[in-house]
Every structure is written in C-alpha cells, then in structure tokens.
Amino acid sequence: MTYLVFSFDVEDYINPNAADGILWSAELLRREGIRGCFNIVGRLAEALVAWGREDVIEALKHHEIDLHSLAHSHHPTINEYTDLADYGAARAEFDRREHEAREIIGRIFGVDAFPAACPPGSSVSYVAHYGYAEMGVPIYTGDLLVDPVHGRPIHNCNVTSLDYHIYLEKFLLQNDRAGIDAHLDKVAGSMETYVMAHHPQMAIINKFCDLINFNGENVPPERWVLSPVRTAEETARFYENFAYLVKKVKNDPRFRIVTYEELAQIYCAEERRIDAALIPVLRDRLREDFFPLTEPGSYCLSDIFLACRDLLAGKDTHVCGKVYGFLEEPYAIEAPLTVTAEEIRAAAPTVGDGFLPTALRVGEHTVGPADWLRGALEVLCGAERVELTPGPWQIDLNEFPAVRDMKLSDGWIHCASFRDRYLSHRFRLQSWTYRLPANSARRIFA
C-alpha cells in the first residue's frame, strides 16, 4: 500500500483572482471527505484577509494547515539571508521571520501547531531544517534530500524530509483518464509514500507570480504584474481531471490518503535507544558499510556517535534524540596510530549536544570524529588498545545525488548577490544526521 498526500503550495499574494483556485481545490477534496495539506505563505494569509476572502479561509479550516515561509520569493529569500558563516546569526534571522509566519497563519486559521513546512522554491537551507524542527514541525516536504526509488522519507537535521513526486497542474493538463490510470498503476505498491503537489493558483493562471515580480530583485508592490490567465477550457479540463483523480485514489485499496500529521505519527513517533548489547552489531555494520543503519533499527551516524559518548561516560542507555552534523569539514587521520581505551574514554566528555566537533584530542593525538567513533566502538566491545586506521569520514553521497551535486546558487530566482558560500556545502556536512526508516533497505540505489 502507498501513503498518498495531496499537498498544496498556497503562495500567490499578488493576484486576488488566484484565490479561487485555493477555494475550488479545498472544496473539491472536502466534498469527497478528504483532508488536503495546505502549505501557506504568511503574506498570502494576510492577503486573503485584505481581499475579503473569508470563504477561502473557512474552506481551508477543514484541511491541515502547514507552513510555506513568511514571504516566499520576496528578497531576501531563506537561502539568501541564511547563507552566513555564523550559524547562530542565520538561525536568529530565520527564527524572527518564520515565527512571524507562524503567528500570522496561526491567528488567521485558528491553529497553533503545524505538522509540516515546505521550502519556497529551492530555498532548502540546512538552517531551515533545524529551525523548523525547533518550532516543533516534524515534516519537511518538497525537499531535495529524498529517496526517489522507494518513496521513503529521510530523517535528517531533526525533521523528516519528503519529496514532491508530481505536480498536478502540469500532469492533469497534459493527461486524460487513461493517462491518469496508467500513472497510478505505476506508482501503486512501488512507492512507500507519494506526494501529489499542486499550486492551486496554477489552475487559473499560467505563470508563477514570483517569476514576474521577484526574479532576481523585488518589484515594488505598486508595480506588481498579474500573471496571465488560462483559458476557461484549460481550467475546466484541470478540475475535471482532478475530480476524476481524487475519486479514483479514494476508492483504490492500493492507496491510503493521509495528511502530514498522520505521516509524522507513522514515521516520527518511534522511541529509539542504543545500549551496550547493541554496540557489537553497530560496530560490525559500520565496518561493512560506513552508512546509516536501518537494521536492527534506524540509526544515523550522529546517533551512534552520541551513544558511544554516553555509554563511555557510564550511562546504561542512550536515548536517541536531537542530532547535528558539522559546520566545517572534519579532520581525519592519514596514517595508522594506536591509542588506549582510557584515552578514547577521556575524550568522550568533550563531545557536546550541538554540532559535532571537527576533531578530538585523544591522548597526545588529534583524531577526527569518524576515527574516534571507530575507536569508541572497539573500546565498548572490550578492546584495551585500538589501532586506528584511515577510513572514510563521509557517508556515500552517491545515494543522495541531489545533495551530492547541490549548488543552490544555480537556478530559481535568487538575487545576483547570492553566492551560496555555505549552504550547499553545509547541507552535505549534515549527512551524519541522515537516516532511512527502520526495517527497510539500507541503501537507495544499491
């Protein structure tokens, strides 16, 4: 069975006519007894009030309300203002803006919790992942860190990331019922989760408002340009196909229509622990493949690193919780060296709960975090002396090609001053927080 989400990016706060698309999509689902997930831009929520669209606001209250940033593509975007060397300063600015978005959306729609957040465009800053997690948002949807083969969520940076697998505005305008049926047959059973995304304004207009008004720079509000309108025939065809699709999946036992809140309960509620009895298994699995584990449970490298710290400090069990990666590329030894168990143990208290250290002092030696992790596992398995040999510090990013090749300064509508000095590199440096669901394939492509 495939978990299916109807996810809507509600973002056009320039064109009042586009609000009809929100209403029609919300009501179409409501008539079928289905809750969609509406990712709302803070400024759009304010615009609905200014436009007097209480009908849209009331229609959306039937559905799950999620976050889609404060101002979407208005500069500076999330990527632009978080591309700083100082993570604390970047987080402070993110928190300031996105807490404003939470307040606006929460007040207008009468909600105080948000099961999901969605990045505007390609603004997938690692700062946003950690920031939304601290706000209590469990799901980050429409991300670039995805499993395109199996449709599994990927836990990272204390949130759980999902792909946008298909955009309905394009798909439903280009297909007939036979095409819809064929696509559902392809998806059913092969994908664990499947997110059908839609920008509801795009059933009415045919060009995104930000491409016209925020492409590289902000157009002042008094000069905002409205997007061209689709023909009545195009809009009618879209909703006819949308209604067919909704009825089809609603009555198809191969699919279970869920919200992000339900997915969070399925994927994010498990309690994960690591005790001494589990350490030999973790050691052996990491010897085989320096990669996150899915058996005997779902564990990222940061989980195991922190568990070694706690167990070496005398704790009986490590309860897995918040995890962090690196802010700079970590050190790794280039030649073998031998250390004692006591030297490994003495380094454990230097590991804190925030971003991981890029190097540790072990006796008279400087070692990298991956070196220390391998040594700590051996000590916890009873070794009194450990020969540390050079090995990988990074997981195999070929399993996550969108992250491996990430260059956020390319594409979208960023202003010319955006250089991506830190964001793409640091996204990769969070790889010690990546993990796939328990009891599933350990790799994506292998």
Task: Describe the overall structure.
The protein is of the alpha/beta class and 446 residues long. The protein has two domains: 257 residues, TIM Barrel, CATH 3.20.20; 111 residues, no CATH class. Helices cover 38% and strands 13% of the residues. The strands form five sheets. Strands 1, 2, 3, 8, 9 and 10 form a six-stranded parallel beta sheet that branches. A four-stranded mixed beta sheet has the order 4-5-7-6. Strands 11-12 form a two-stranded antiparallel ribbon. Helix 1 packs parallel to helix 3, helix 12 packs across helix 15 and helix 13 packs across helix 15. It is globular, with a radius of gyration of 24 Å. The two termini are 23 Å apart. The mean pLDDT is 97.
Summarize the structure.
By secondary structure, the protein is α/β, with parallel strands linked by helices. The protein has helices at 19-31, 42-50, 54-60, 78-82, 87-109, 126-134, 168-174, 177-187, 209-213, 232-250, 260-267, 279-288, 301-312, 341-347, 369-380, 401-404, 423-429, and strands at residues 2-10, 37-40, 64-67, 116-117, 139-141, 154-156, 159-162, 166-167, 193-198, 255-257, 273-275, 317-319, 337-340, 360-362, 365-367, 385-388.
